[in-house]
Amino acid sequence: QQLPPDAPIALRASAKGDLRQSEGMRESARGELARQEARWDDAVTAYTNAQEQFNQAAAEYASAGLAPLEGQREQILNQSAMLTMTIRQIEEQRDREQGFLETIRNLERDVARRDRDYAGLVDTIGRHGVQVTNFNEARAEVEQNIQIVQRIENEARQQLQQLVDAIAATRVDPSTNEPLSEETRNALDELNQKTRQAVEEPSHGSSFLRRVGTITNQLADIVKAASIVAGPIPAIVGTLMSLVGGQMAK
Question: What is the value of pTM for the model shown?
Answer without folding.
Answer: 0.47
